[in-house]
Amino acid sequence: MKRRNTPAKQAVLDILKLSERALSQEDIEKEVKGTMDRVTVYRVLNSFCEDGYIHKILSDDGKHYFAICLNCQEKKHSHNHFHFRCLKCQKMECLKEEVKVNLPKGYQFENSNCLVTGYCSDCR
Fold this sequence. Notes:
The protein is α+β, with helices and mostly antiparallel strands. The protein has 3 helices and 6 strands.
């Protein structure tokens, strides 16, 4: 089912496309500067996740971050990769390294949430 584009969806998508890092819902709310409420931002982000245009990252700080997958060749997120969160500046970013998991026979890999923490090159 194709969803219709709305000004709210376009605004959130533009913010995510311009960002060089993953953003929390709060980050996006600050960017839209009161043009839409928290529930609208939440619904837009969830619809983008459902449609595979962005992916959600659960951080060790309990927050969810959202990013367009810059490493994918297709328009939809299609692989699992590591994420890095800087302990000083809190920047969250996608890393190019793809997650490879050796599962026992009969198991099927679907998804992972791989987070590495440390200090980014700016904060080191």
